[in-house]
Amino acid sequence: MQVSLSVRDHDGTCHDVAVTTSRQVSLAELRGPLADCLGHSRDAAVSSGNGPLPDGALLGGPGLRSGSTLQIDAGGERFPPAGSVLQLRVIAGPDCGQLIALRRGGHLIGRAADADISLDDPDVSRRHCEIRVDLRALMLRDLGSTNGTLLDGALIDEQPRQLTLNSVVRIGNSMLSVVGVSDPPAVTRPACDGSLLVYRPPRILEPDRATVVQFPATHDPTQRPKLNWLAALLPAALAVALSVVMHSAQFLAFALLGPATLFATAFADRRQWRQGARQHRQLATIAEAAAQAELDGLLVAEQQRRRRRFVDAAAVLHAASTPDCRLWERRTADDFFLELRLGIADQPALTRARRDNELEPADQLSALPATIALCRGPL
Prior knowledge:
Number of strands: 23
Largest sheet: 6 strands, antiparallel
Helix content: 25-40%
Number of helices: 4
Order of helices and strands: EEHEEEEEEEEEEEEEEEEEHHHEEEE
Structural class: alpha+beta
Strand order of the largest sheet: 7-6-16-15-12-13
């Protein structure tokens, strides 16, 4: 029987261990070889994601199957990733792939060895920033770092700012993200040789599609009414001329009646036009706000969809160590089957806005996976 285990020390260091035996052995018999191999005490507590393991636990049984993660002296600052609701994932930088479970309280992030979350990044200060977790919200604040802390591209100071799930925090050359472990564990079944069979669940792919959001017209479709001065003054001039020729003052009354009627009609039309224009501007403002909200929502959804399709190293580690339902998610028939993630870069969005029948330049989405398609490249 050969069983492959991942063993995590109390300081967070993970070791891959292969155990080969011709008979079924218990954890009590494994303690000695594990201690000699990894250099920890033989009396150290050993636990799995479901809790402490008894000395009578058998190799190949629950907690000691291939792919299981064991914790030595569990109970320190770092916990097994699979047993935490919130995780801080290092998605870029020298420590890319690191998983840190976030429990309630403050978490100091920096380069110092005694920091709660220590990063091996020379551009990170010894005491760079702090994440505080409570029942109401996640809060992030800078601690007077040299290079600053960026939250979704915005520079923050020592005033605590709310940190939402899947937001990207940049410190130095490292990028961090807090995620909620929402993917359910995969359905597994132990095999007779000590391995673990994982059942791949069905999936629903979200296609990348170019979506266009139509914004309302920026111009007022109604024209301002104009006063026809010729129609107003010509009859008046003729009436005055007739009054002089006929020596009758009655024609003067007719000369004033026509322009007065025309001016009254123009004033009523102008007033009605102002009311219609005001109502049009109000409706246009509401439609503009609704279109902008739709565009913002689609951009966020596209950003999350593209990040989820090509996950970071920390997400891969979590999927492999849990294991969760994303194991072996790709199929050979997928267009992106041989598309690999190389890093992170700002990229143009597929979602666009249209104003006055013209497409606007695409927005830039931050921290999207930069990939290479092996099947379409020179390789």
